């Protein structure tokens, strides 16, 4: 029945612990809403402003090309990023979204674009639309005829005089007006922005660099090929100081969907299946347009004897090269790592420095050095060992040479990863096998090697996939040769990737659709091998876990 004279602790409910007060009561939600520092706010504003600027810059080409789906995706993505990073919610997404965007932009989109290209005839002569092809056909057939308008010509560029896009600066002798012309057409120039010599030739123009005679002569082929379309025909150069507006000899007739030559009367009819204008005797005009061809590119790879025969022969060597490069480098790297892992070895740090030197050197430079070292006449290999082997002149010697080069370039990597894996193997396991009376070889085969393979199998699979498409190793040493006299497109050391490059971008012009189809075959092969290998790796992990 006593009464407390002063304030005491608050009463507690039965079964509950003591009440907490003060800073410890700070909740997880309150901590998650901690104020952003001034530096963090500035960084966020700058990055979001950069994203908005890039989006605005990318929107104009999409609008010009009427790609409304792409524009909608751009707007939605930009708005989503703004919402995500301007709120304090969805913390995990703030870290996952940038990586996902880069994955889509640099992995998923290129793969999908390559796959879609494989079903088209995209390539030289079939790059644009049908309207583009018609314009190209008509302008390329322009000839000077009696009464053609002539202009004083100055060659200019908007960039580097040696490589920038060419522009014709044309002066009309009748009116004195100056126009700038390129493949997109003519644009009048303000008289205040140009300086015209007494001959009518432009000597200076605002926004353009006028080429002198020497600079123009170097690019004479480009100047001759440049055609400026006009309403009455097209403008072509006649030397370096004069130009004429000629008439197109070949014209498109929409009624028959054909191109007719006004001089010869010859007609080429549009073929929607191939994206070409074809004459009655099968002749095709060089300018065509891009169309879908279905599975024709894939069928061509498998059924065309000029492609399928070399393709499957190259595939066998490709497997041998990838397996040999990976296996030999792993074997040598593992042997050196085991030797240096022995406690009886001295000076291991010095050995490691020398052993990783090939890994530290630029591979493309060392490939060129090795190419010279295998030279028959003055190469170091023949001179050092007193040999007379024509390394790159015979099929098997060239293949052996590229495998030796790969061994030298690749073993340091395998040495490094094997050294790390050996450090993770408990010594008790190998000591236990010694106690049981196992020899060093039995201990290595039963304990060390299986555990190494469990740890390094993903790296070996990745190395196989890399070597399967290792274009540098072949292109910078043998360029795919030696070549048979009757087959200059497929060499003894060609991989599928180098064979595809030569096939698709050879003298006949670029064939991106065919190259994309072969790329899909390569992707399917590597993906299948990798999937099977990873499945076997998981089984090994289950056994030795």
TrEMBL record:
PANTHER family xrefs: MALTOSE/MALTODEXTRIN TRANSPORT SYSTEM PERMEASE PROTEIN MALF, MALTOSE_MALTODEXTRIN TRANSPORT SYSTEM PERMEASE PROTEIN MALF
Bias (Low complexity): 13-24
Lineage, top ranks: Bacteria, Bacillati, Actinomycetota, Actinomycetes, Micromonosporales
Localization per Swiss-Prot or TrEMBL: Cell membrane
Membrane listed as a keyword: yes
Function: Part of the ABC transporter complex MalEFGK involved in maltose/maltodextrin import. Probably responsible for the translocation of the substrate across the membrane.
Disordered: annotated segments: 1-32
CDD domains, alphabetized: TM_PBP2 (cd06261)
Membrane topology designation: Multi-pass membrane protein
Family statement: Belongs to the binding-protein-dependent transport system permease family. MalFG subfamily.
Transmembrane segments: 41-60, 66-86, 95-113, 315-338, 350-370, 400-425, 446-466, 512-534
Primary residence: membrane
Keywords, comma-separated and alphabetical: Cell membrane, Membrane, Sugar transport, Transmembrane, Transmembrane helix, Transport
A Pfam family per the record: TM_PBP2_N
Residue stretches making up the ABC transmembrane type-1 domain: 315-533
Protein name in UniProt: Maltose/maltodextrin transport system permease protein
Organism this protein belongs to: Micromonospora humida
